[in-house]
Amino acid sequence: MSHRAIHTDHAPAALGPYSQAIAVPLGDREILFLAGQISLVPSTGELLDGPVGEQVEQVMKNLQAVLEAAGSGFDRVVKTTIFLQSMDDFGAVNEVYGRYFGEVPPARATVAVSGLPKGVRVEIEAVAYR
Fold this sequence. Notes:
About 20% of the residues lie in helices and about 30% in strands.
């Protein structure tokens, strides 16, 4: 069995030649590599460009939709990478992000970048399993 693409209409469509997620078999499980999500609203295709906390909330909803489409959830996320346009947003991002994870949050890297797609302030990618 080879890797497979995960797709859901409940998360934004890819903005380029990539999949929302890829599932790779590993024994009786699959490792899930989720593409970075930004604050696009899937039902409208519009960008939510309000305060960073609102952007993160939409990003997390988008990640949740992809995880669910793959048969997984936030309790099975083992690694995330957060890309921030400004480290000044670190605290506000943590406040929203932390509500999605239980007692054992995933490993994480947070990186400041000079720009993100569509000028958003935050993008988050994840690795999970099912």
